[in-house]
Amino acid sequence: MGLAFLGWPRCARVRGGSVLSGEAKSLLKGAEQCVGRVNALEADMEALSDAGLRDLAKTLGDELSALDPSREASDAQVASAFALAREAAWRVLKLRAYDVQLLGGYVMSRGALAEMATGEGKTLAAVAPTLLGALRRRGALVVTANDYLARRDADGVGLVLRFLGLSVGLVESSMAVGGDDRRDAYASDVTYVSNAELGFDYLRDQLALEEAELVMPSRPGASAVEELFYWCLVDEADSILIDEARTPLIISETTAAPKAKYDVARDLADGVLQKGRHYDVDEKGMSVILTEAGYGECERTLGTSMFDPKDPWAPFVLGALRAKELLLRDRDYLVDGAGAVKLVDAFSGRVLEGRRYADGLQQSIEAKEGLVCSDQTRPTAQVTFQALFRTLSSRLAGMTGTALSDGKELGDVYKLTVVPIPTALPIARKDYDDAVYRTVDAKERAAAAEVVRAHKDGRPVLVGTTSVEQSDAFVERLLRDYGLAASKLSARPDAAARESAVIAQAGRLGAVTVATNMAGRGTDIKLGGSASDLAKLVADPAVAALRKALAALEADLGAALDAERAAVVRAGGLYVVGTERHESVRIDNQLRGRSGRQGDAGASRFFVSVDDPMFKTFGGDQIAKLMETFRVGDDLPLEAKSVTENLGKIQAKVEAYNADLRVNVLKFDDVLDGQRRALYATRRRLLLDGADDAAANAREWAADALLAIAKSVDRDAGADGDVDALLAARLDAFFGPGALRLDADALAALGEGEATKVAALPAVAACVDGLLDAVAEKRPARPPTESFTKLALIRLDKLWADHLLNMNYLKESVQLRTLQQTDPFQEYQREGFELFTALQTKIKADTIYSLLQIAKE
């Protein structure tokens, strides 16, 4: 049977008029065929006992695990897994996946990103493809935006997977770092984990000094640090893969910060330097540029050069100016009760736990806020989410409510095709044109009045803001001007625990909820409210512990809320009010999408001002002139489709600008990512190699050190130099007097690169074997190869941290070379390669030299 009754997009166009790619159309066609096969199996699945379902899952797992990881499961195997998942979900959760959920699941199973509207059941749709991925028995990850969602899904739909005989693990931030709980979770068939915990566990594994410290398993068929898992499904994929991908995850070591310099720089920025005279602010590029007069004023005030290599001041002054002009409290960062600066994700509004501003900017903000100056950090390991998710699994998939507008970037970076899934019921929400005002104050007064008007009619209202500061101000305005108390959700950590339960009640009669961007994302807003979430809010712990009592409470609340739902529908459904356009239309669509779930009535409208930061920065002056021409008063909105379209064009310009910035950042990071993969692969092999392999590594590294010495001799001896004498002297200095001598053939090969190494290898091997014997005598408590491995790992980590700093300095340096008519990226590639080649040589030489010093103890 066809799927036209579901609004199936048989034409090439989908929601919003977007044109599907050929790949997306092919996936949709395959999905339709898969749904037909799954429906045909339904009666067979119903006839099986619980044990019969588990037996079928095991048989299917035997078949799928025998496949090469690069091979796709057959159509019949996919249909069987999906039919199994659907029947198991019904028996365990009393939830039966709709056909549209199977469509989304099929798209995910083929390594694509399913765009499913709010309320369409993404969580249940993910069960079947996750089962299919887990049955390959090479590890499956389900990555969520936070701990709450990871636990919710592991404890909820995870029951379906457990019912079918799979092990399900959960990783949470409360678990001990490097503990057995984490190790067991990652070793499970399916692991639920937040993106931040996954990233930091990956980095911590790259700093482990013993195999026992690793929490991520090495599975058959996986390379050293790549494809540790077969399947990885990212929930809220647009937020994790695009919005949060701009800020790298960093593990650092601390050093004392020069607090006095940060304080002096702050005083300069606040009391001496003048904007427009001493410095200019580039709000688009989020940078501050000192003028010639600014440099002069700084050096006169400080009494020293801004660029003294022994005591530079430029980074401190520029950091203070950036903190002053570009980073706002409660928008870009929060200050918690302990006086710590916490980063806020500009897109989701959530605190980025564990992240700090780099390059001294954290300390500049602390000086600005009058806080205790924290220690500076020096990165020892770092990775971006782009690099992490392109590395960690064989197959990456995603799901979210809005992604099509960023489909090109997701395709270019992650090779993910975005496929919009039709809704089960038509969307009944009415999206009104923007109401455009001249000033921010007029806009906010109008938005507040609109909220109050809807509230008086009993209509629930969800107000979306772009910052914590905006949320606080709007809630205060409602209370001050109208005596209306609104619920507030924001990025503050103390709101995180209850945000999902509160947002679930945002659809109740007369409810007014103010949320920073997408706080509470991942939870449906049901008209009339959610009985189960309301029960959690009103039940005390003693009642909650008694499941029968809680179930009865939910039943009573459900009956009451049914009547309330009817009243909300009569009032028009949930009304979404946006107080500002975001820099991404995708984020605006996420806010709109909170209304009109599963065919519910609803509406949305954005209140904007031509003085909003985005429009001021990117060209809203034309609309302002239009309002001047028509003498539009402050309190009168300009509402016209042409104006909304004009604002949309400005927003598109901002999106294109930000996308270009991300592409440029990624281009540079890809250079470092290639180096990171190579180094981490070497590191993991060192960690996992046995004694024989470690001895072979020691011989190979000593030979490479010899080759480096030979090259230095060739370079330094000159045409008239005594090559033999210089080589012997350097070999004695490195390996010890007389420890290594090259025969005539090896000397003849001098200068021929690898030939030198090959010819000298027997002599080097004998030298290293003797060296290992000497180390064994000095330290009999452990095998000598273990000493080599430990030394290698310690030197590698130390020198890699130095390299990260050097690569950062290089990136800053090449950006200043545009006046020399050079391509900064090509310079970064070329010089970065030279730095990495030197790093590899130094790691090997330093390790062998340290081993020699132990032997001499």
From TrEMBL:
One GO molecular-function entry: ATP binding
Membrane topology (UniProt): Peripheral membrane protein
Pfam families membership: P-loop_SecA, SecA_DEAD, SecA_PP_bind, SecA_SW
Primary subcellular site in the record, as a coarse category: membrane
Signal sequence region: none
Regions annotated as coiled coil: none
Domain SecA family profile: residue ranges: 13-639
InterPro entries, A to Z: Helicase_ATP-bd, Helicase_C-like, P-loop_NTPase, SecA, SecA_CS, SecA_DEAD, SecA_motor_DEAD, SecA_preprotein_X-link_dom
The keyword Repressor belongs to this UniProt entry's keyword annotation: no
UniProt keyword list: ATP-binding, Cytoplasm, Membrane, Nucleotide-binding, Protein transport, Translocase, Translocation, Transport
Location(s) in or outside the cell: Membrane
Protein name as it appears in the record: Uncharacterized protein
Species: Aureococcus anophagefferens
